Amino acid sequence: MQPRQQIRQTIRHARRQLSLEQQTEAAQQVAARFMTLPDVVHAQRIALYLSFDGELDTQPAINACWQAGKQVYLPVVHPFSRGHLLFLQYHPHTRMLLNRYNIAEPTLDIRTLIPSSKLDIIATPLVAFDADGQRLGMGGGYYDRTLGLCAPNATAIGLAHDCQRWHSLPCEQWDIPLPHILTPSQHWHW
User: Fold this and answer.
1) How far apart are CA 78 and CA 116, in angstroms?
2) What are phi and psi of 107, to 5 degrees?
3) Does the keyword section mention Repressor (predicted)?
4) Whether the model pTM is above 0.70
């Protein structure tokens, strides 16, 4: 098994071991930290994601954004451009469907689509991160491509559990480090 796959397997197992109480508390702490970041305070258009497979629960952050009057967008796997994401506005009553990865996403509706270059914040899921801001995702490259297209317009913020920190991640030329990573105990920034 390659090192990146071994890290993914180890970290995914560790985050699945967190109790429901630990998950809930972590999500609340990260949401509070997220909402106090100056970039988020001044943002209007924020891309978040719905948690999957033990990822830090983003629903408290989504709710906090709605309460603050911010527009929330969710990623949708692009139907025609392989490996790319679209972002659609998300409301409490948005119609959802499961994509090919079994992840809930808004039903494609061009009226709610925003060009990724117009986003202020892109919160990214991650499997692991290191002290240099490197992010290890699931391996599809969706967020690396998205961040490559959005920089420097949007601020990228990784959301994670503390157990997802790895001492040093192997990097590829296409990997884009994150300027901010939030965990329940810390705000990592570079």
Assistant:
1) 12
2) -65, 135
3) no
4) yes
